[in-house]
Design brief:
With about 230 residues, this protein is of the alpha+beta class. Helix content is about 45%, strand content about 20%. It has eight helices and seven strands; from the N terminus they run E-H-H-H-H-H-E-E-E-H-E-H-E-H-E. The protein has helices spanning about 15-25, 30-40, 40-55, 60-90, 95-100, 155-165, 180-190, 205; strands spanning about 5-10, 110-115, 115-125, 135-145, 170-180, 195-200, 210-220. A seven-stranded mixed β-sheet has the order 1-2-3-4-5-7-6, with helices on both faces. Helix 1 (about 15-25) packs antiparallel against helix 4 and helix 2 crosses helix 4. The radius of gyration is 21 Å and the shape is elongated.
């Protein structure tokens, strides 16, 4: 097991952090596609398409061809959810990480470093939901390199966020993760997070049966005695 350390983000980490984030998000696209194909609506739609194309053309081969085109188009749309999300993040808070997280109040950004390489990252910031502002902080941009998973890095990064929030007197930490990120859900639930809701980020996501899960971890009071 490789050793690692958690430290605050530095400017020289910029490219490594952005690349790690993009890779981490895009690798979930195949799982999202498999989820779509398993949905009853997708299977029904493909069946109707096959029957309709076969009836119109009078040839089952053309029916299969229509289904194949639909499958390719569906993959492009599913992947576009990931690429759009990555592009949005890289052009907003991850465009100037220091300004977004190190110079902003109640915010921070950490990386996990192993052998001189950034292999993990996580951020914390006031939540976007106005109802949570002042009461909670939001865990964001969690990602760990595939080669370094299973070594406790994600747990350590999550712990930094929880300690940061508690030290500043916040009562909870909230986060959002996609329905296909099963390992992330298990990690968060193991750290005390509970799922409190779900939503589709766009009409396309709703059509593709893709949801974002919302989690919350209530923190014990700093004055609470064991």
């Amino acid at each position: 097991m490789a050793s690692y350390r958690i430290r605050q983000y530095r400017e020289q980490d910029y490219e490594a952090v952005r690349s790690l984030f993009a890779r981490g998000i895009l690798e979930h696209a195949p799982a999202g596609y498999r989820h779509f194909l398993r949905s009853a609506w997708a299977q029904l739609g493909l069946l109707i398409l096959f029957i309709g194309a076969r009836a119109a053309a009078g040839c089952w081969v053309l029916g299969l061809g229509a289904v194949a085109v639909a499958l390719v188009a569906s993959w492009v749309q599913v992947r576009s959810l990931s690429t759009t999300y990555v592009q949005q993040a890289l052009s907003t808070d991850l465009l100037d990480i220091s300004s977004s997280y190190l110079r902003a109040p109640n915010s921070c950004f950490w990386v996990a470093e192993a052998k001189g390489t950034v292999v993990g990252m996580v951020a914390v910031t006031p939540p976007e939901d106005p109802a949570e502002r002042g009461a909670a902080l939001e865990l964001k941009r969690m990602s760990v390199s595939k080669d370094y998973r299973g070594q406790g890095i994600s747990k350590a990064l999550c712990g930094e966020v929880l300690r940061f929030a508690r030290a500043r007197g916040f009562g909870a930490v909230v986060l959002s993760t996609s329905m296909v990120q099963v390992a992330a859900q298990q990690l968060y639930e193991g750290q005390g997070f509970k799922k409190v809701g779900a939503s589709s980020p766009s009409l396309l996501a709703a059509i593709l049966c893709f949801q974002i899960y919302h989690y919350r971890c209530d923190l014990p009071s700093r004055t609470a005695a064991p």
